[in-house]
Model the fold of this input.
Amino acid sequence: MMEFVLVGFSDSPHLQWALFVVFFLMYVTILTCNSIIILLIRYDPHLQTPMYFFLSHFSFLDICYVTVTIPRMLMDILSQKGTISLPSCAAQMFFVLVLGGTECLLLTAMAYDRYVAICHPLNYALIMNRKVCVQLVAASWVSGIPVEIGQTSQIFSLPFCGSHRINHFFCDIPPLLSLACGDTRLNQAAVYVVAVVFVMLPFLFITASYTTIITSIVKMTSARGRAKAFSTCSSHLTVVVLFYGTASLTYFQPKKNQAQGTGKLLSLFYTILIPTLNPIIYTLRNKDILQALRKVLGKKLEAQAASRFLT
Done:
């Protein structure tokens, strides 16, 4: 069976253990923080709103996204081999692409939720009912699956007759296309089409939504109302800027720089660092989440105090 070799960070052998510790701690942080957010939203009655329904799915998405890449990368650092079979490589690329597309669509759904909440507050409960929220989330998760099945199949049907060393820490389209020895023009065209549908169009919708939101906020007569309205969407806007900003830097990097590893480092930014920052952004900038967390910690401390008193 054909195998690839993920180069990863093997070109920096003196940093292997330091990288392992950093990535392991990041992974544990992502799992822990996002799990806490999901549990808080699930069990706190004050967080049973569309905005937190979307946030719980976004937290679960971050867990899935990093689980596709980080455990494999940690194993490669320990083994210092990096070999991956063709089916495993195809599966990893498929899930990375599907989850990346889901993140773009879910961020779009969250932007629409904030648009309705701020620009049409009187009709918010009617428009963003439970059925609509479930449909938006389901569409975000499912829409990219058939597309990425076709794209993954198309790429792995190409002949790889040259080097099998992938200059990346996970199986991704650009480094794989660079290893193919057949005609890849059709594949590259398909990549651009998918990028337009799942990246560019959602970004334009998010931009239009926030343009309307900011216009509505500026028109508010109450300074307190403006501050409250902006605080409800500032966390989401921060995540959108970080995700699309780093992804755009990766996309527009010249190929020469990417061959030297710049593209790999930027990919590291939006596949690992951004998911690490997401739960921190949503907790530190969200009073409802912090209040729910304090409530849980307060109950735990009270239970411990009562237990000590009884013993």
Notes: The two ends are 63 Å apart (CA to CA).
